[in-house]
Specification:
Blueprint lengths: L1 H15 L11 H7 L8 H6 L1 H21 L5 H17 L9 H6 L9 E2 L4 E2 L3 H8 L2 H20 L4 H31 L1 H15 L3 H13 L4 H17 L17 H6 L5 E4 L5 E4 L1 H6 L4 H9 L14 H16 L1
Antiparallel strand pairs: 1-2, 3-4
Amino acid sequence: QARKTQEALSSNYKSKVKRPAATTSIDYLAYLASFSDFSAIPAAQKTQSTLYQEYLKDLKEYLLDFYRRTQPLVDLDDVIDETSAKFEKQWALHQVTGWDSNQEAENADDNKTPAHFCKLCKKQFSSEGVYNSHLTGKKHKKFAAAAKTSNDTENEATPNGTSAGLDAKKELKMKQKAIAFDEVLIRRMYELLTEVVHGTISYLELKQTRTHEELQAEIEEEEEGTFSDVDVENENEEGEDEEEQLYNPLNLPLGWDGKPIPYWLYKLHGLGVEYKCEICGNHSYWGRRAFDRHFQEWRHAFGMRCLKIPNTKHFHDITLMRDAIQRKYLFLMTHIL
């Protein structure tokens, strides 16, 4: 079960979670070990990147769904409520990891952006030369003209622009708070799934050391439940041996070792003689020994109980219902007289 859980975390995640575009790639094992660490990402880029926000949302939903499926007895809503209450206190005190610095909060403002970042086009450039070349391009000029027209319209509606500025700032803070809560919740889920994540990493490291043939053999055994050729041959040989041992043309009873008993023993105990008991529902007993023993067994006792006759030694060797009833009345008359 633990192995299936580890495989689910390692395989299903790739198909369900969309990763943000990045300039450098990261190994999957390294990603599993650090996917809950968001401190290295500047707050401004978190707020301005829609891809990052979509990534957080998908990752959060996947972890919550995975935890619900693997831990159905745990009330996840209580965990979320507890995390939310703790987050509200930390957010009010500016103690949320990655958002605890006032400088980072100020850098997230529209007026203070990272170097070589175009606010209008929402693009980050690698060098100053590329950034300056972009500023003279047609696309940037088009966005600049549209932004200027929009600002003029807003200024006409609100001459001092104070109300619009306050609303934008409030909206920005709400956006930052939502992003920060998603990060905190993901870190909390990582803490709850630490054992599973570490187990997944160990399993993947072990899997990488195996050859292609070993992996293929493991997949076949797990999915199809087949055995190796050696095991199949051994089973066939054992099956043939058992068939040879059970070869019994005279239909003799089997002994304690699973083999037919000797024929002389079969004749000695009279196992070829059939005894029928009407009280037992015409059940057949082979051999005198089995016949004598059946009078104290459950089948005969049940038949006697149905006839309302006590199953005592006085009714031993009686197999017909009529004889048993007659013996009953004779027994009662003898005791009455």
